[in-house]
Amino acid sequence: MSLSRSKQLNRADIVDQNFLSTVRDWTGPARTRVRGGDEQLAAGTTLTVRDFIELFESQLISRHLDLMARVLRVQNKVFYTIGSSGHEGNAMVARLTRHTDPAFLHYRSGGFMAERFRKLPGMDPITDSALSFAASKLDPASGGRHKVWGSKPLWVLPQTSTIASHPPKAFGTAMAIDQAKRIGHQLPIPDDSIVICSFGDASANHATAQGAFNAAEWAGYQQIKAPVLFVCEDNGIGISVRTPTGWIAHSFAQRQHMKYFAADGLDLAEGFDQVAAAIDYCRRERKPTFLHLSTTRLMGHAGTDFEIEYRNFDDIFAGEALDPLLRSATLALEHGVYTQDELIAHYESIRKRCFAAAEAADQTPKLTDLADVMKPLAPYTPDAVMAEATRTLSAEQRSAIFGAALPETQAPKHLAILINQALHDLMLKYPSSLLFGEDVAQKGGVYTVTKGLWNKFKGARVFNTLLDETTILGLAQGLANLGMLPIPEIQYLAYYHNACDQIRGEAASLQFFSNNQYQNPMVIRIAGLGYQKGFGGHFHNDNSMTALRDIPGLTVACPSRGDDAAMMLRTLMALSKVDGRVSVFLEPIALYMTKDLHEAGDGQWSFAYPAPDQAIALGEPRIYEPEHSDLLIISYGNAMPMSLRVARQLQQDRGIRTRVMDLRWLQPLNDAAIAAHGRQCARILVVDEGRKSAGPGEGVITALIEGGCGGKPIARVCGSDTYTPLAGAANLVLPSDASIKAAAEALLSL
Fold it and tell me: How far apart are CA 337 and CA 208, in angstroms?
């Protein structure tokens, strides 16, 4: 084996030349020619000649895609150069699994993808990959939005995770397989499928990944079926930070409820049976499985990464000596699969195909229109959504849940009860829906909002989870990936921040990065906002909504009254069912039990349950006193009763005619409605219980100014930029009746 010790910066060229010189300089004995077949390649392995030939070709395809990307990057014909070189052994995982085994892949998965493309006829990994590298509009994975490994027919769900933020949804998808069977949901994949989740050794240390590993062991400990194959591709380094030698084995080999397998990812003959054993165990036992696949990293982290700046040359040379393609070439020559000339010709023919595909991809259309870029981000078909939202079940069907007294025939109720009744209705309407979270089952939630659901729908559809918001949202994604309609609960808004990237980076991005080929519809219920009297502090009085409002494609709904809550939930469930969307239903805790508006016992904040054929269109506000125009108060959530009380006081004290707008929908804001009502009123007061910085009020003010209201007196009352303190001090940092009234009077004096 001849390995160059050149200190040139272009290690891609060195790796390329190392392969060619290894083949040219091979001096082994002549062997009997083999042409392929089911005979074993060598003693001691079940790897057949056919297996080897096709795996080797997948490795070569992956390598040449990397080499092509490095060359064409400087010509602006390729826009992504994180390569798979050194990791091509992951092709064995693809070979030994099925194309219906959902896969969430590490970005160094070129070998895996090239091999999985063999599973279905007529598919070409080179063309598809070239289109993706070139950000072509014709890219079948993302439509040119990003270089992702993905394929709808091959069940590779596109993602952009670089820090192992995807293991929770992989674990969730594995859990969903058996969950679907328990509720009678028809799976889109065989019921003995497993889920593949690959990542690097450095990423295995990430808190999100560790949460998924813990959840997997939690499931294994309880004998809950979770057939997820975690594949750790260990190349010993994360960009420039070394992984301590032996760390992955030390961390994972002794775990009792996640079986550990080690496999040689650098040698097809050595690694094949080891990989097969891990996959067989996972599929047969339906248990979490950890496959530790040894790899190396060639050509640096990416095309712009110059390893010589942080690695010594001996380390670089040692890594290049482990190149799995050198070992595969040697096996091919030793066993007579190829002659030297044939192998070089085959190698060069694949290079030619990759460059030809890249040049062709460069000539294809690119995304040049903003509307086209954003098209799959938040699909919305209003008529279909409203038709679904107002679709009803028969009274006989509903009486099986509610009894003879259907909720719309009962006396007015407060918010918590009306949400509870709406959830009963929706769980009945959507048999594939599941409600889960911490304490939601037998206890009925911290505030009894889910009381009775467990008794009605039992543990297969209403269940408690472990205390980890990341896992809850990962499970939601997994259930949605397999066609179910999850309703996860995050117990408090403050707890959502622990796991927000599961929505920001994973769930809400799937439609965008898959060009709407994949959807993971869900309605996430979150109890939040302030005004819990006497306890809680910032954990239970969190008024920070920024981490929700800036997530592309996410819908955020916030009701202030129970009838609205029921109708908005119907709309959100329909939005998920019809358009595959991810939504957050933000429930104001302090209004859960509120019954009165002006005086104790007046019952004016209790409302009748709306008939099941009623829903609220996405973005539609509620307007109180629409004919009034002296002052417009725009608000939402807890501040709505306050604003209405202030409006009545202004009418009584000064004869001021106040219109009050309940936004109801915080993301996206209905800019047109905000501006239209603003133009009709003389003065405008925005009441935002969120914080001054980055609260919804900022968006409302922007909508007013951009909508032509800039010449009017406008003021804002909002929360302070601080954490919420305990007890009565909380009232000092949040809007109140008094502060709203004072701001309104100051505005009226202008």
Answer: 44
Residue 621 pLDDT > 80, yes or no? yes
Give the whole-angstrom CA distance, residue 616 versus residue 390: 9
Look at residues 240, 263, 250, 262 and name the one whose alpha carbon lies nearest to residue 315: 240
pLDDT at 9: 60
Q: Per-residue pLDDT tens for 696-742?
A: 999 999 999 999 999 999 999 999 999 888 888 888 899 999 999 99
Mean pLDDT value of segment 473-479:
97
Query: What pLDDT band is residue 311 in, cutting at 50, 70 and 90?
Result: confident
CA distances from 408 to 413, 415, 561, 596 (A): 10, 14, 15, 20
Contact between 548 and 508 (Cβ < 8 Å): no
What is the longest distance spanned by two Cα atoms in the chain? 104
Torsion of CA 146, 149, 150, 154, to 10 degrees: 160
How far is residue 331's CA from residue 346's CA, in Å, rounded to a whole number?
A: 15
DSSP string, 230-253: EEEEE-SEETTEEPPTTHHHHHHT
Terminal-to-terminal C-alpha distance of the chain: 86
Question: In angstroms, what CA-CA distances link 159 with 141, 167, 217?
Answer: 10, 11, 24
Residue 378: name the closest of 694, 668, 673 by CA: 668
The answer to whether 159 touches 208, Cβ cutoff 8 Å, is no
Q: What SS3 state is found at 657? A: coil
* 279/695 Cα distance (integer angstroms): 48
pLDDT digits (tens, 9 = 90+) for 247-267: 999 999 999 999 999 999 999
**pLDDT value of residue 308:** 80
**pLDDT by residue (tens digit) across 318-368?**
888 999 999 999 999 999 999 999 999 999 999 999 999 999 999 999 999
pTM for the whole thing?
0.95
What 8-state DSSP symbol labels residue 29?
Answer: P
Token code pair at residue 478: 């997994």
pLDDT over 80 at 221, yes or no: yes
Residue 103: its H or E element: strand 103-104
Q: Is 428 exposed, middle or buried (0-12, 13-18, 19+ CB in 10 A)?
A: middle
pLDDT number for residue 4:
52
Q: Where is 171: in which H helix or E strand?
A: helix 167-183
In terms of Cα–Cα distance, which of 283, 292, 288 is closest to 261?
A: 292
Nearest CA-CA partner of 647 in 631, 662, 667: 631
Are 671 and 707 spatial neighbours (Cβ–Cβ below 8 Å)? yes
For residues 466 and 476, give the distance between their C-alpha atoms in angstroms, rounded to a whole number. 13
Could you say which DSSP state residue 543 is in? -
Q: Which of 156, 158, 258, 251 is nearest to 203 (CA)?
A: 251
Q: State both tokens at 716.
A: 């804002």
pLDDT at 689: 93
Cα–Cα distance between 291 and 198 in angstroms, integer?
9
Helix (H) or strand (E) holding 259: strand 259-264
